[in-house]
Structures are given as structure tokens and as C-alpha cells.
Amino acid sequence: MEIAGAVRSYITDELGVDVRAGDLDGDSPLLEGVLDSVTLFRLVSFLEEEFSVTIEDHELAPENFGSLNRIAEFVRSKRAG
Amino acid sequence: MRPYLLHHLLHASAGSHPEAPAVVDGERTLSYADLERRSNQLAQLLREQGVRRGDRVGLYLEKSAASVVGIYGAMKAGAAYVPIDPRAPVARASYIAGNCGIRALVTAGEKAGTWAQLLHGESPIEALVLPGEDAPDADIPRRVPVFGREAVDGQPAEPPGVPVVDQDLAYILYTSGSTGDPKGVMLSHRNAMTFVEWAADLVAVRPEDRLSSHAPLHFDLSIFDLFAAALGGASVHLVPPETSVFPVEVVRFIEGHGITVWYSVPSILSMLTLRGGLGPGALPTLRTVVFAGEVFPTKYLRELMRLVPHAEFLNLYGPTETNVCTWYRVPDIPEDQTEPIPIGRAIDNLEVFAVTDDGRLASPGEVGELHVRGGGVMQGYWGDPERTSRVLIANPFGGEVRDPVYRTGDLVREDEDGNYRFLGRRDSQIKSRGYRIELGEIEAALNGHPSIVECAVVAVPDELITNRIEAYVVVRDGVDAAHLIRFCSERLPSYMIPQRFRFSDTLPKTSTGKIDRQALRARS
Fold first, then answer.
1. I want to staple B362 with a disulfide (CB 3.0 to 4.6 A). Which of B130, B326, B366, B456 is the partner?
2. Whole-angstrom distance, CA of residue B288 vs CA of residue B309
């Protein structure tokens, strides 16, 4: 499954945050009310399991988690590297 | 003069070191002299708008230099400040404003979209003040006046000099209520000062200290951050909410600001331990780590103490109704210990004792409900004498002196060495991320949905955040989880929204016909 789509489903269906799939496009900001420290932790566990990547502490940063597109790009680069 | 009101603490530090930084908010720093003057001017404006001693002034904006000005300005005008979670649904903000009769609201342009809903025909709010910015051009219902920075700046720089005694209310904090509406915990200046004087002394807060302010203003951890700093003449550094999302950013914040005293719920510290990238020599300026609000998982606490060996670690415990009532200095934790650390013993000028189910004082080793008496005990719940009388009782062991004692609802046991241990709750109140939550309030919100036939909300233990919330629902038509999440988010703050909805055809029942929560918890 496409990365951004899988992450979108996870956020809208599993995180208990008030966001509709239709309102969440690739560039919607995730750090203004969608992700907080707790949901970020759960999202990271999901990414590590779902895409078999290991995410380093310093990679938990706005540039990698600011939007669906950034997360997808980040996961792609992890898998390629 | 010996300070006996919270704003006396600011006044004293503004006198002794006016140029020292009081509040650091991003790029913006307010000196003690700035904060004193601006809050005096705000108090003058609030007086001019009819705020009188004993009134309530709401704060409805993100934590900022302006909100700190709002806190002091409200108290100097003789009012109690009422911090409203700026991220809570407007319906909840509106309930709070109506419940305690907020007369003036300190707010900011970022909340302008909510003003129309807040200022409905029944709303008690008579004025909006934006101390940190220009008043926006907005269509305001009922022609409620809006004052911006320039109106505040135009006021006299002296305090209005409203006579206040330390029994007067300083603030009201709204907390989750089991019947569906939040309840307003009334705290006086004396209540707050009992804690602040003890805490500033214990931590030895000095002018060179830099305190973090991580908790939101509607959470009572903020009382330490703001007022222990003011008492000690130290600076308080506001942690931006977006920083708290990323552990490495929190580490960068602490190091960048040279924070010496950190106070937060344990969950953020657990995340720092797990994902903060803390290596040898990290957080060099940090000398004291204080935590409260929930149980700190022992393995993460031990690990954090190993990573930051130069800091002391203090566990504070207490419900909003008493602020902090017990404390414990954490010693080295043995490698094999998994049991949580104790909540410790009473702070100065408070007494705690445990009462058994049959009404006796519990002996060490016996389980009892923790009771608290002394200077920190709240004045009651706003406008709710019935609920107040259930928890504030005449001291059963006081003889002729039947002073009020607060029943915490927390079950504890005293160790032989005099330290208390927290064992659990008597009722269905739970903690998640340090917030206290009545599961009944979430159920009441869900039961307001026309499609819900029945529901039960349960807490599922979680290593990082103490509890996750799950809702079991029986629905009559095809509503989905996303819809219910949206419905909840219009009524409840985000930390009360169930993380998972489980749909089923029926809920298990006990022999007496009640929903069998134990069976549900076993399913989660």
C-alpha cells in the first residue's frame, strides 16, 4: 500500500484524533492539533512495524513528521538507505 | 511587608530586581518591571470595565507572555482568574464562562473565531481584552467592547490597590466531573501560598534559576512554575506546545534555555528517556527534576536518573483540590525494583491521614482513603455545595475543632517509615498523561449522541501514559469511529477522547443488570 495512504488511514482510524480522511491531504500540517507527543509515539511504532524501518531519536523532528508527504518521503528514504 | 497574596510575590521581585527576566516566551522576554507594570495596567483597565473584588476573569488564549500578564492583572483587580483550555471545544469554554460567571475575558486574536459562540445572549462576559496585540476588526455580538494592547498601555502604571485578603479566591481550575459537567475547584491565595512557599523553599529557587513551564495554565502544575519563580525572582520559560511533541526538541529547549528546574507530568519525562537521545553530559544545567500527576514507571525513572546523575528528583502528589499535599525525594532505585516509588509524606502546614472503610485512622500497613487538612485545602466547587459537602467534611478526629478535611478518594497505605504509597482510586476516576478524567463524563457525552444505544468507557493500563481510553458502544445505525471522535471533540478536551471505539451488538451485564466493566476491561 502507498505509504501516505497507509499513514492517513492509521491517523484517521487508530489515533483517536478529530480529523477526517477527506480533510487530510498530503500537505496538511500535522503538528497543529493532529499529532502530540503521545500520538507521535504511537505513529512511530506503527511506521517501524508496518514498513520495517528503525527510526532514530534525532529523526523525530518536525521536518520528518510535519505532513503526510513528509512522513512518506522520510519512510521512503529510510527504506532506500 | 511579608507577601501573603500571589501577586505580592511579583511585586516584591519587581522591587528587588526589576530588570531580571520574569517570563521568556519564544523571542519575547518580559522583565519583572515589565510584568509588574503591564499587569497593573491590565488591572486598571479591568477595574474600569467594572471588574470588582470577588469577580471572575477568564483566560482564553494559548500560554504566552500575554496570558501571564492576564493572570496577574486579574488578581490585582481583586478577581479570581479562570484559565480555560484554549484547545478545548468552545462548548466547554462556554459552559465554564456561564458556570462561574466570567465577567471579562483575557484572550487573543487566535481565538477570535470562537468569540461569536462565546458571547451568546446568556453569556456573562462583558469585555474582551487582548493584552498582547492590537484589537482586531471583528464583528462582536452584543457589542461587547474589545480592548487591545494600546488600551492596556494607556492605563496608569500603578496597581489599583484593591483590598484583598488571603482567604479570597485566587483562581478556579475546572476539572473533569463524573456527571458530565466539569467542576470548578476554588482555590484561595492562602491555598496557593501554602504550596508555593513550601515548594520554593524545598527547591531553593534563586534569581539565577530558570524554570520550565511545560504544563498548560489550566493544570495546577503551572502554579509552581509561575509563582515559585516569582517568589525566587527566577525566570520562567514557556515550552511551546509544538516543542513538546518531539523529545529531542524538548532536550534542545532545556539545553538552549539553560533550564535548571523542570516540572512536568512523568509521561513527557518517560518519552525523553526513551527517545530524547540523551548521552553522557546531557542536560548539564538541569539541577532539579520535579514530577507529579501520575505514577512514573519505575524503569524509566531509574534510567532517567542514570542519564542525568547531577539532578535531584522529586515526586509530588496531590489532587487539584489541595494542590500538592505529599512529596518524596527519590533515592537511587535498585536495578530489580519494579514497584512504584512512594508518594511520600505531607508538605509543610498540611496534614494527611488515611481512614479505613469503618472510619478508623489507618495504622501503618493498613489500606485507607487519604484525607488532607490544612492551608492547601480548597474552598469548594464553584456553585455546587452538594458536591462540595461530599468531599469537604468536618474533621472526624478534630474534637471541638471541626475544620474542613478533604477526602481525596485515593486509596493509600503508610509504610513503616512514614511514607505513603498510592494504591488506586475508590471510584472510576482515572489518570491519563497526568490529566484526571472521570470516565462517567465521557459516557455522558457519548450518551448524548442519538445513535448510541448504550456505551461503557474503560481505562486500559498503558506504560507511557498511565491509561488509554477505550469506548465500547452499541449503536442503532451505521455511525463509525471517525464520526464519534468528531462528536466527542465538540464536547470534550482532546485528552478525554477515546483512543479506540469498539462496536458490538450488546454489552456484557452483571447479575444486577449493570454493565460489566470488568469483563470489558478483560477484553481490551
1. B366
2. 11
Among chain A residues, the shortest Cα distance to B489 is held by: A18
AA letter at A51? F
Nearest CA in chain A to B89: A18
* HSE (side-chain half, CA atoms, 13 Å) at B285: 17
Cα separation of B184 and B171, whole Å?
9
Q: SS3 of B155, please?
A: coil
Q: Are B473 and B484 in contact (CB under 8 A)?
A: yes
A41 has a chain B CB within 8 A of its CB: yes
CB B80 within 8 A of CB B171: yes
Q: How far is A15 from chain B (nearest CA, A)?
A: 6
ipTM: 0.89
The residue with cell 542519564 is: B307
Q: Does A69 touch chain B (CB under 8 A)?
A: no
Cell 468552545, residue? B90
Cα separation of B330 and B327, whole Å? 10
| Residues 6 or more apart in contact with residue B457 via CB below 8 angstroms | B439, B442, B443, B446, B469, B470, B471, B472, B498
Q: Who contacts B475 (Cβ-Cβ below 8 Å, separation ≥6)?
A: B451, B452, B453, B503
Q: Is A53 on the interface with B (CB under 8 A)?
A: no
Asked whether the predicted pLDDT for residue B42 surpasses 60, the reply is: yes
Comparing CB atoms, the residue among B464, B469, B494 nearest residue A41 is B464
Q: Is residue B26 within 8 Å of residue B240, measured between CB atoms?
A: yes
| CB-based burial label for B319 (10 Å; 0-12, 13-18, 19+) | buried
Q: Which amino acid is at B47?
A: R
Contacts of B383 (CB under 8 A, 6+ apart): B99, B100, B184
Produce one character per residue of B485-509: b if its CB has 16 or more CB atoms within 10 Å, e if not.
Answer: bebbbebbbbbbbbbbbeeeeebee
Confidence of residue A20 (pLDDT cuts 50, 70, 90): low
Report the alpha-carbon distance of residue B346 to residue B385 in Å, rounded. Answer: 27
The enclosing H or E element of B261 equals strand B261-264
| Angstrom distance (rounded) from CA B391 to CA B407 | 5
Alpha carbons B521 and B9: distance in angstroms, whole number: 48
Rounded to whole angstroms, the Cα distance separating B485 from B479 reads 11
pLDDT, tens digit, for every residue of B434-461? 899 999 899 999 999 999 989 999 999 9
The CB density around residue B51, as the number of other CB atoms within 10 Å, is 25
